[in-house]
Amino acid sequence: MPELPEVEALRDFLSEHLTGHEIVRVLPVAISVLKTYEPPLTAVEGRTVTAVHRYGKFLGLRTDGGPYLVTHLARAGWLHWKDRLPSGPPRPGKGPLALRVALETGAGFDLTEAGTQKRLAVYIVADPEEVPGIARLGPDPLADDFDESRLSDLLSGERRRLKGALRDQSLIAGIGNAYSDEILHAARMSPYKPAGSLTPQETARLYEALRGTLAEAVERSRGVAAGRLKAEKRSGLRVHGRTGEACPVCGDTIREVSFSDSSLQYCPACQTGGRPLADRRLSRLLK
């Protein structure tokens, strides 16, 4: 799933390629992608893109005198830029193409979604706050006013584990499964540690890891073409998706805990005092 750094890089890319250009056509291929019906998709046609914004993991295209086109790429969605779009209209079918946006220059982008779980979402709204997912977002962790005190206040009284708290978009916007693993590894904290139990020293360590990990990932992705962002993300991850490999910090073996629809990765030596975390799904399989 694209998270804050990749979506921020897409925002930069689209700002450069879309701002000042006219949207001449928006072509839906998968009707399931549309989450609003009034205003219609055609409300952005003939309008110039004036800015591209990021809201957590959402992207919003603002048009001159008209509505926003907002999208969330979900788990398996992606944006593919094309300097020259195909001349013919896209044909509905079983392929991954969900929506096409064409500019007056002949360039544009496709939104695609792999797999069978169709969660890619597109909204046409007068105000981004009309999108439920944006309205409930917590603070952006890279905002200037997101300081250590803000993080401490957010975590105060939290009963959830750190892994779950960091992924909650209503608590902190933009962090998903991959970067929560990376942040906790950098902070040397167990993903199972209760979020509300942190000492001031631990909160400071988590804050430094959170800001540093995300800022580094954003900088690494800056200037990378949209089509290469996924590979860039994978190349920069130290523990997430690297089960069985050696930890780049201490050399211990990276381990995994599996859930019904996701998994987490961590280093026992760096994060849990050398103790493996219980993997309940694996334990059930061994009974």
Number of strands: 10
Q: How widely separated are the two ends?
A: 33 Å
Judged by helices, strands and strand pairing, the structural class is alpha+beta
Radius of gyration: 20 Å
Which sequence of SSEs, written as H and E, runs from N to C? HEEEEEEEEHHHHHHEEHH
User: What's the overall geometry?
Assistant: elongated
What number is the mean pLDDT?
93
The biggest beta sheet is recorded as: 8 strands, antiparallel
In DSSP terms (H or I, runs of 4 or more residues), the helix count works out at 9
Question: If strands are numbered along the chain, what order do they take across the biggest sheet?
Answer: 5-7-6-1-2-3-4-8
> What ranges have pLDDT less than 50 throughout 5 or more consecutive residues?
283-287
Helix content: 25-40%
Strand content: 15-25%
Task: Considering the chains and any ligands shown, give keywords for the structure.
8-stranded antiparallel sheet, two-stranded antiparallel ribbon, single chain, 287 residues, alpha+beta, disordered C terminus, 10 strands
Q: What would your notes on this structure say?
A:
The structure is a single chain. With 287 residues, this protein is of the alpha+beta class. The protein has helices at 4-18, 132-135, 148-155, 162-167, 177-187, 200-221, 229-236, 268-271, 280-286, and strands at 22-28, 47-55, 58-63, 68-72, 77-82, 97-103, 108-113, 121-125, 255-258, 263-266. The strands form 2 sheets. It has an 8-stranded antiparallel sheet. Strands 9-10 form a two-stranded antiparallel ribbon. The radius of gyration is 20 Å and the shape is elongated. The protein starts with a helix and ends with a helix. The model is unreliable at 283-287 (pLDDT under 50).
